[in-house]
Amino acid sequence: MTAIDLNTPPQRSLAHKGRAIARTHPYAVAAGATFGALALSALINWRLAKKAEKDNPPAGRFLKVNGVRLHYVERGSGTPLVLLHGNGSMIDDFESSGLIDLAAENYRVIVFDRPGFGHSDRPRNIVWKPADQADLIARALRCLGVSHATVLGHSWGASVALALAIKYPDLVKGLVLASGYYYPSLRLDVVPLSAPAIPLIGDILRHTLSPIIGRMIWPLLMRKVFGPRSVPKKFEGFPKEMALRPSQIRASSIESALMVPDAFHLPGKYAKLKMPVAVIAGDKDRLIDIDAQSARLHRDIPQSTFHRFGGTGHMVHQTATAGVMAAIDQVGERGHLN
User: What is the mean pLDDT of residues 150-170?
Assistant: First the structure.
């Protein structure tokens, strides 16, 4: 018959057993605790992502092109103007800048959430390099009855705009390239940014740690992309939580990984562009060396103009909106003459 010590409280007995297990199987306990913490963070991030989508419903319409559900906003009338946002961003960036409303006074403005950003899908069976996105945007514009347009691309969107102009020169009558990356260079910063794109490991990261890290470094990132200017008040409504969803982190990390490799394929084609081109950059850009990128592109495209905004960083459409609008008008007028 087993003796029972009635003087030992059950709680103490369980705690003693727990400590014994921890001493005997420390790695199993650590693995279990880690798995539990990751599972909890994944659940929290999933709920935050759903809440972000509920709090920020689609502002525009949807278009299904080759099985891809694209979200777009259309405003104004006149000559079509297409706006393509940068990596990690969405339509809301152009909306908060005031550029959409400003341009809609004279243009038919069409702004897309690029694949994987905002409310647009990003099927996994395609890598979605700039050329792939250019094909998708070209088909979408045909569906919208657009046969020619002025196209503005910001940052990674500039790579898509360039690919669109190279592949569909009859469609793109004028090109505005803002804060873009056009020539391969050593970019160590893309290595950590690309981690969530790694198969399996990246899937775990983007559902667990990446959104948490993203929230922690968001103020620092904003200071870098807007610097030396402060983040404008009009940008405060940008839906940060939409950008920190696991799905959008995946899209952003893949584009970070593609940035340098893709830059090897296009430079030899720049001089073949025949449409009017405006190259735009802030002279204090902290992300991109504008002399090695924008200024060089201007030299390689004979008919281009270079708009260098003083005291402005990477987000030129936010901090120099009127200047960007003037460049769009200039390109539009030249494209109309052609």
Answer: 98
